[in-house]
Automatic annotation (TrEMBL):
SUPFAM superfamilies linked: Thiamin diphosphate-binding fold (THDP-binding) (SSF52518)
The organism's taxonomic lineage, starting at the top: Bacteria, Bacillati, Actinomycetota, Actinomycetes, Mycobacteriales
Protein name from the UniProt record: Pyruvate dehydrogenase (Acetyl-transferring) E1 component subunit alpha
InterPro entries for the chain: Alpha-ketoacid_DH_E1_comp (IPR050771), DH_E1 (IPR001017), PdhA/BkdA (IPR017596), THDP-binding (IPR029061)
Gene name, Swiss-Prot/TrEMBL: pdhA
Organism annotation: Rhodococcus hoagii (Corynebacterium equii)
Pfam families named among the record's database cross-references: E1_dh (PF00676)
Cofactors (names): thiamine diphosphate
Biological process annotations from GO: branched-chain amino acid catabolic process
Length: 365
């Protein structure tokens, strides 16, 4: 893998033509026409999730949202490469990964609405909730992977992060631990070219995947807007982890077409020409063109996909608008896996404090 860093793996060009890469094409040779159509549907639905959530934030229904616009192929391709018992540690932008893992759309916005500390139960989908501390999830993933390995579980653990996170100490420590202990981790970097307002060339003058060599692990750079190529390289890395081959590093070269979050204005630090260049590499358009070339795209299929996207978006919107406000006691839920005397004490003290507020109101009336 390490000798391929200079030439990102690509299986489908932006115009929809297939690329002759027998080594990686073999890894996705089982992707028949219906599976290819399903990947396209995943891409479209993921973008619809993102646009709906962004609209909800603009309407004041969410406090903030981290858009994934433009990164759909990197997320769908990698998520669909995994087995159900593989475990995912996420950052804060992997909404498409969550969708592919089976997270209920009605739960996706609760944390961003501010009415819950998390959205879903990680145990039901083997995927953590969004992690806001940049790079911290790398250590969590490495520890989990090592523990699972010691328990005899033949699984892959995947951790998602952006190019900016590669400058964080937590991630460097995670790479070092994983390499030294042969932890079965796939480090999946979505290089979307911008760490908020800082371009990637300020993060690293060389390909980010090249950093893996310093830790003694194989790495591959892939066209992150090519869902088939991402599927192929992630399958290879995940299989290596499951087979006891240790950690791998994947750099998916993609582009954040929208803002860093909905509180960001990318026009202050990006040019229109750059955005147009990457818009021509749109991951959804690429696979639609491939489907058209191979006679797999028609009006009926298009309508079915759009209907599915609208249904998921409606469920996401309903989940946001109908999410119940939490009660005071929920502040103390899920802090520990089991009952804890300190939490019981703090809960009782907080209830006593709330009682004083009620007593004060009654006295005033």
């Amino acid at each position: 893998m390490a000798d391929r860093i200079a030439f990102p793996v690509q299986l489908v060009q932006p115009d929809g033509q297939r690329v002759h890469r027998p080594d990686y094409a073999a890894l996705v040779s089982d992707v028949e026409p219906e599976q290819l159509r399903a990947l396209y549907e995943d891409l479209v639905v993921s973008r619809r999730i993102d646009t709906e959530a962004t609209a909800l934030q603009r309407q004041g229904q969410l406090g903030i949202w981290a858009p994934l616009l433009g990164q759909e192929a990197a997320q769908v391709g990698s998520a669909r490469a995994l087995e159900r018992d593989d475990y995912i540690f996420t950052s804060y932008r992997e909404h498409a990964v969550a969708y592919c893992r089976g997270v209920d759309p009605e739960l996706m916005t609760r944390m961003w609405r501010g009415c819950a500390h998390s959205g879903w139960n990680p145990a039901t989908v083997n995927m953590t909730n969004p992690a806001i501390v940049v790079g911290a999830q790398g250590l969590h993933a490495t520890g989990y992977a090592l523990g699972a390995h010691l328990d005899g579980a033949e699984i892959a653990t995947v951790v998602y992060f952006g190019d900016g996170a590669t400058s964080q100490g937590d991630l460097s420590e995670a790479l070092g631990f994983a390499a030294s202990l042969a932890a079965p981790v796939v480090f999946f970097c979505q290089n979307n070219q911008w760490a908020i307002s800082e371009p990637v060339h300020l993060q690293s003058p060389t390909p980010i995947a090249a950093r893996a060599a310093g830790y003694g692990m194989p790495a591959v750079q892939v066209d992150g807007n090519d869902v088939l190529a991402v599927l192929a390289v992630t399958r290879e890395a995940a299989r290596r982890a499951r087979d006891g081959g240790g950690p791998s590093f994947v750099e998916a070269v993609t582009y954040r077409m929208g803002p860093h979050t909905t509180s960001d204005d990318p026009t202050r630090y990006r040019t229109a020409a750059e955005s147009e260049l990457w818009r021509a590499r749109d991951p959804i358009d690429r696979i639609r063109r491939l489907l058209e070339r191979e006679g797999l795209f028609d009006a009926e299929f298009d309508a079915r996909v759009q209907g599915r996207a609208d249904d998921v978006a409606a469920r996401l919107r309903a989940g946001a608008l109908e999410a119940p406000d939490p009660g005071p006691d929920e502040l103390f839920e899920h802090v520990y896996a089991t009952e804890h005397p300190l939490i019981d004490e703090e809960r009782a003290a907080y209830r006593a404090y709330l009682d004083t507020l009620t007593t004060g109101k009654e006295a005033a009336s």
